[in-house]
Amino acid sequence: xxxxxxxxxxxxxxxxxxxxxxxxxxxxxxxxxxxxxxxxxxxxxxxxxxxxxxxxxxxxxxxxxxxxxxxxxxxxxxxxxxxxxxxxxxxxxxxxxxxxxxxxxxxxxxxxxxxxxxxxxxxxxxxxxxxxxxxxxxxxxxxxxxxxxxxxxxxxxxxxxxxxxxxxxxxxxxxxxxxxxxxxxxxxxxxxxxxxxxxxxxxxxxxxxxxxxxxxxxxxxxxxxxxxxxxxxxxxxxxxxxxxxxxxxxxxxxxxxxxxxxxxxxxxxxxxxxxxxxxxxxxxxxxxxxxxxxxxxxxxxxxxxxxx
Length: 308
Ligand SMILES: [Zn+2]
Ligand SMILES: [Zn+2]
Fold this sequence. Notes:
By secondary structure, the chain is of the alpha/beta class. It folds into 2 domains: 4-155, Quinone Oxidoreductase, Chain A, domain 1 (Alpha-Beta Complex); 158-298, NAD(P)-binding Rossmann-like Domain (Rossmann fold), CATH 3.40.50.720. Helices cover 24% and strands 24% of the residues. The chain is built from 9 helices and 15 strands. It has helices spanning 42-49, 107-110, 151-154, 157-169, 185-196, 208-216, 231-239, 257-260, 287-298, and strands at residues 4-11, 14-20, 30-39, 69-70, 74-82, 94-97, 100-101, 121-122, 134-138, 142-144, 177-181, 200-204, 220-222, 248-252, 271-273. The strands form 4 sheets. The chain has a 5-stranded antiparallel beta sheet with strand order 9-3-5-6-10. A 5-stranded parallel beta sheet has the order 13-12-11-14-15, sandwiched between helices. Helix 4 crosses helix 5. The longest helix is centred in the middle third of the chain and has 13 residues, at 157-169. It is globular and about 55 Å long. One zinc ion is lined by residues 41, 43, 73-74, 158-159.
């Protein structure tokens, strides 16, 4: 096969646009996809600055790959080839992907929580991803796209799934107050999905640009005053603002670094999207920190759920 163009992670701060051979073979159970669109996730930016999911020193036990690695896990494209035994998709199918590699044998995998597989690998971090013209990955990751979903929208499947998973973990129900903390792509997905499910979203955001975007999308918004460090207090108050319901769900998104550095003590049932503890890649100075972050992150990865 001729080399493909790819954006490769070589080390923190060292991304290279280069021609590479595909490192994964098109073996049994694998598919090859010509990439149409690929989003840039906050994780990609984090890995560029301070890697925590990419382990330069290790060969990944499921993928067999060791950096350098091609980034990109939020993508869509068309299947161009399939390996032996693949019946999930066929050549010509348009697909997106659930990026989780899984062993299929550990306790989490057997219980259907493969996003928490003990080996927790991701396309685009643990194996070559879709910042390239072609990507190969296990067929079980492929999610066929219906005709009415464009390639462009299909590439948003993974961040949409994160928002949906957050609402599911919070047992969100129609009529409840939904406080969305941070209006990056995942926050926006969460608020839009929440509204479509009949929740009453309120968006908290520090960035004026993102706040304006939330307003343009028709959401009630709140801009905390960061100099007063009043965020936790503000969210507590806002969570109780809705007199019409007796319960609220807060979703804390990783896309607001200014917010995510603060521990937020909400009275709502659950903070998810990102765990509510202070997590920031730059503070992960020990392996224990890094492993804790990996564990916590695994709890919020996408999962298969019926779309509302
Ligand atoms: Zn992502
Ligand atoms: Zn597993």
